[in-house]
Amino acid sequence: MAILFHWNSATPEIWHSAFAAAGCGSDIRSIADPGNVAEVEYAVVWAPPAGALKAFPSLRYIYSIGAGVTHVTFDPEWPSHVPIVRLQDRMLVLDMSCHVIHWVLHFHRFYARYARQQDQGVWLHHRYPENAERRVSVLGLGQTGKDACIRLRDLGFPVTGWARSPKRIEGVRCLHGNEAFDTVVRDADILVNLLPLTYATANILDASVLERMPKGSFLINCGRGGSVDDRALLNALDDGHVECAALDVFREEPLPADSAFWAHPGVFVTPHTAAPTNERSAAEFIATQVKVAMDGGRPAPIVDPERGY
Ligand code: NDP
Ligand code: OXD
């Protein structure tokens, strides 16, 4: 019942003590030194090297050290018969909401304009609408999207959330399904993407969608870069239809040096840091879910292989 652990940025002591505290034992293996691979039943990983997981024939569960799972599922050689357990973590949710609120306020109050004005020594006020007049749409109403909606609602913004299935969040207009997408986009003075990257959400923010956003709107992408058509976004920024974009995730990471996003005056780049995994809380959650499996239970939440999240 060994555990394979792989995360380049980990503090191993935190994970080892979380596994011990949860009663998962101390047989923790690495990809570089896996020992008898047949003994490994649980893989706790972030971005394992391509093909690495298929070397473990007895794997029962793969635990993602992150909310997104494309770091496993986009590897063409991952053992797709093994269920993936996603990370659910209150710290990650809080961090994501802080990131979203930061950029919503930044754009709502036109601070991006003041940053440019400061470069030129310009003292000029920009009147901003009342919070109640700035409509925010949030794509994705999972653990991160729901919390962001609630906090934005509490700041007085009219919030629309969008998911695949129906939801109810007090004081938030919740829409779902493809038929409602057009409304969500047209009503987005600020659009926040918190969708997982799947076959259904790849390139979902393409030219036709960006065009339907109100003129002078803003985009905050902290889901995955593959959901945005980069060229279309650059065009929308160039012609001012989208005033600014705060991008935390990209098709290629690290963002290549020649990407037009780096130097674009309307773009704010952060290096995939909206909600970095908090080691202590994540280790506690994952170790608990490994123990559930060791005791013969079904860990949760499990990724639906059809939906891809
Ligand atoms: P969840 O799985 O909890 O929620 C996903 C939400 O997206 C659900 O509400 C789901 O709808 C909705 N959704 C999925 N597919 C569709 C679709 N085709 N149409 C409409 N709605 C859809 O995810 P999290 O909130 O935990 O995380 C979301 C994503 O954020 C992650 O997958 C990851 O890519 C990204 N992320 C980025 C981080 C960063 O630092 N930049 C950190 C953490 C996450 P339903 O509820 O109906 O199933
Ligand atoms: C995650 C991420 O998926 O950090 O948790 O992107």
Write the layout of secondary structure elements.
Blueprint (H helix, E strand, L loop, with lengths): L1 E5 L5 H11 L5 E2 L10 E6 L15 E4 L5 H4 L10 E2 L4 H19 L2 H10 L15 E4 L3 H12 L4 E5 L9 E4 L1 H9 L3 E4 L13 H6 L4 E5 L8 H9 L3 E6 L12 H4 L3 E3 L9 H16 L15
Helix pairs in contact: 1-10, 3-5
Bound molecules: NADPH dihydro-nicotinamide-adenine-dinucleotide phosphate (NDP) and oxalic acid.
Q: Summarize this, please?
A:
The chain is an alpha/beta fold and 309 residues long. It contains ten helices and twelve strands. The longest helix is centred in the N-terminal third of the chain and has 19 residues.
What would the keywords be for this entry?
12 strands; five-stranded parallel beta sheet; 309 residues; seven-stranded parallel beta sheet; alpha/beta; elongated; binds oxalic acid; binds NADPH dihydro-nicotinamide-adenine-dinucleotide phosphate; 32% helix; 10 helices; single chain
